[in-house]
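Reply to dn_fold:

You asked what the input looked like. This is it:
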Amino acid sequence: MNIDTITTLLSDLEAGNITWEQALTQVIALPKVWQTLEWKQRRDELIGDSCAVCATQDGPFVLQHLVPTLSFKQVCEQVKAKFRAQLLPLVEQQVTLEAVAAHVGAGEERLACPTCGSLTIRERKTMSPSYICQKCEKYRHPTPWFEVPVTVRYYEKQKTTDLAEALATARPFLVSVATTAELRKHDQAIQHEATLRSLRQTLIYRSLRDTATYCKKCAFKEDLPTIERKRYT
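and this is what came back:
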């Protein structure tokens, strides 16, 4: 079942003798373990005569893996989440108030409704008062029309005329961008750790550890969340 080969790859990767790309390439090139005769014989030896869940003795039975097997992409996402949590405090310190204010900018002067501050106003060429607010009109304000609009500052990136709101919205955005940039710097370390985790997971799977005998009905119930998740992702 190539357990010795994978164990050697894991040791070499931990020692830095090979890269994560080399380890991953060699593992992918190995035969599908569930198609090997050794796997099938070992599986048949481990399958019992009753279900570990419902205790039925009416077969057929399968060997159910009790530890979920994640794809390499899922393992990478787990490792990224770990790195993100470690980097976040540092990144938040780097995103200063000055940087947030510079990102928001001075804003652009726009004409707005004096009642609600909305920018959705239009000028009426032949009617008086000259302006009408579409927002006030929509929500049936008693006086949606007015003669002179007010001037406000509009912050384009944050889609608001409220400076406090613009600053509050800009900070998480800048933190997110900076965190993504920092994660890219650690991409090799993330891939390295994800490969280590994936190899350890592969060893557990191939060795048929953490398994139990299930009837097909109980096995389907156990696998259903994974099946549903794959269907909608």
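The mean pLDDT is 93.
Hope that clears it up.
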